[in-house]
Design a protein that fits this description.
- It is elongated, with a radius of gyration of 24 Å.
- Helix 4 packs across helix 7 and helix 5 runs antiparallel to helix 7.
- Strands 1, 2, 3, 4, 7, 10, 11, 12, 13 and 14 form a ten-stranded mixed sheet that branches. A two-stranded parallel ribbon has the order 5-6.
- The protein is of the alpha/beta class and 296 residues long.
- The relative contact order is 0.23.
């Protein structure tokens, strides 16, 4: 009798273990979306095998994959094409019927620097192929000087950023360089010169970088804890309606980063629908991931 009970218990145990393993397997491979706090975390999730696909900026993915590192060596960009996008620089909206004088001034200076700092900084970070022929026409109508006067009076502009290579490099809450970081410094050095010439005395607008949660950039702008978002910001109709955004200054697109072993598995939008996808919270990559998975 004891032998029968032992056998029955053993069978039940085996069935339970198999069922648990099957459930865990199903849970692991179930498609869906998870938001991350930073784009760089895509590589961590893929290496840990807690995600199958990471949707992120091509500019960043291509840069990180070109770096010889343990995080990059087993990853690649899948053969799935995404639509072309563009980066812009966001400032607070001007009063109704007016244009933002600060946005206008930044646009003017970007054009002035296009064959100088803009070009050399892009070469420095290996993204010359993403640069644009910057052309700008001053808007008609009346300028709203509120934001320009605000940064002139306090003597600095606070730029919201995340560590988003090659746009902003660094560690902790500090940026030590990057395409956007270096270009912002060059632009506001030029703006300081132009304002100084206009008023007949030296005016310096310092550039301060503040690390932000990308998903909270809108509230940071509204609360005036930052004055600008200059960090690989994809221009969208919603953002253009909310903020005063500069002309497009860099080309980009989203891409799907996968493990090299899975490159042939995730080679179409239909295949991506069956994957566990991750992207940065509040990013264009998140929008793309949700569209692929049919998440509203």
């Amino acid at each position: 009798m004891k032998k029968k009970i032992t056998v029955i218990v053993s069978i039940i145990s085996i069935v339970f273990v198999m069922a648990f393993a099957l459930a865990a397997c199903n849970k692991e491979t179930k498609p869906g979306y998870t938001a991350l706090s930073a784009q760089a975390d895509v590589f961590k999730e893929l290496n840990a095998k807690t995600a199958d696909v990471g949707i992120m900026d091509y500019t960043m993915a291509n840069y990180l994959l070109s770096v010889d590192s343990a995080m990059a060596k087993n990853l690649t960009i899948a053969d799935v094409e995404f639509e072309k996008e563009y980066y812009g620089i966001a400032f607070r909206k001007a009063a109704d019927g007016k244009y933002n004088a600060l946005t206008d001034l930044v646009n003017q200076v970007l054009v002035e620097l296009k064959d100088a700092d803009y070009k050399t900084i892009a070469e420095k970070y290996g993204i010359s192929a993403a640069t644009l022929d910057l052309v700008y026409t001053k808007p008609a109508g009346e300028a709203d000087n509120t934001e320009l006067d605000y940064i002139k009076n306090k003597g600095k502009i606070v730029i919201g950023f995340t560590l988003n290579a090659p746009m902003a490099l660094g560690s902790g809450d500090k940026t030590t360089g990057g395409f956007d970081t270096d270009l912002a410094k060059a632009v506001f050095a030029k703006i300081s010169e132009k304002i100084s010439e206009k008023v007949g005395k030296t005016i310096t607008i310092a550039v301060e970088f503040k690390l932000i949660d990308w998903g909270k950039k809108e509230s940071e702008m509204e609360a005036k804890t930052i004055d600008c978002v200059w960090n690989g910001l994809t221009v969208t109709p919603a953002r253009a309606a909310q903020w005063s955004i500069t002309m497009n200054y860099l080309e980009n697109k989203q891409c799907a980063v996968v493990r090299k072993a899975d490159k042939d598995k995730y080679n179409s939008y239909d295949a991506l629908k069956k994957a566990r996808i991750v992207a940065e919270d509040g990013s264009a990559g998140e929008d793309a991931a949700k569209e692929i998975l049919g998440i509203k």
